[in-house]
Input
Amino acid sequence: MRIATWNVNSISVRLGQLLALLEQTKPDVVCLQETKTEDARFPRGPLEAAGYRCAVAGQKGYNGVAILARTEPRDVATGFADAQKRLLAATIGTVRLACVYAPNGEALGSQKYSYKLAWYARLRDWLVRELARHPSLAVLGDFNVAPEDRDVHDPELWRGRIHCSEEERAAFRALLDVGFVDAFRLFPQPAHSYSWWDYRGGAFRRDAGLRLDLILLSTGLAPRCRACTIERKLRAAERPSDHAPVIAELQP
DNA sequence: ATGGCTGCTTTGAGCAGA
Output
C-alpha cells in the first residue's frame, strides 16, 4: 500500500500535476492540503476518471484538505471542530488515515502563533482518542514545523523563528509521544532533504528548504513501512506548488 | 536578501502563506 501527502497550494491550479503524479507513482491513497476550494467545486470528475474516490473538507480561498483513494473511503470524519478546514480522517483498507494541514503561525508572539500551538494541543488530544480506536493510524500532511535542525537548510538562520522554535518543536514531539514515529527517519536519507522551498528569492535553486511535510505512523503501523521518500522533482515543474509530495510504502 | 513569489479574493489591491 502506497500512501502520499502533498500540499498542492490550490487544487485547481495543480490538477494537471496531480493527475501526472497519480499516473506516475500510482499511490493507493493521497492526502492533499491547501486545496483552497469549496466542496461543490472540487474536481471530482477528472480524479474519479483517474480511478480515485474523493473525501473532501474544503473552504473557499484558504486551507482545505482532501483524501483520494483507489477504494471508497470509510468512516470519513472531520475530527475536532474548527471553522478552518485543516483535518480529515478516513479508513482505507486496514489503515486509518488522518490528513492534516497545521496552521502557519506567522511569527512568534502573534495571534496566529497562539492559534497554532492551541491547534497542536487539540490535534494531540484528538490523536489520543483516534489511536485508541484505530491502532493502525497514519497521519499525513503539512505540519508547518521542521522537527530538527537537520530538517532546515540553515539552522542558525532559522533558530527560534517560526517553524523552528523550541515551542513548536515541543508541540510536534508531543504528537510523537502519543505513539507515532516520523516515517522518513525510519530509513537512511540524503542530507538536505526538504519538502518546502519559498517561492521567493530563488529558494529552490539555492536549495534553501525546510522539511515540513511528514508522514507519522503509529507504533503499531510503523513495522509495515518499507520506504519513505520526497518527490523533489515536482518542485522543479512549471508553475509548481511550493511543497513537494512525500510518499511512503507500507507492506500489506 | 524578512522579500524581491504565488494564489486567492464579489477584479484589484490586500491578505495569506512559510
User: Anything to note?
Assistant: Residues 7 and 33 of chain A are 4 Å apart (CA to CA).
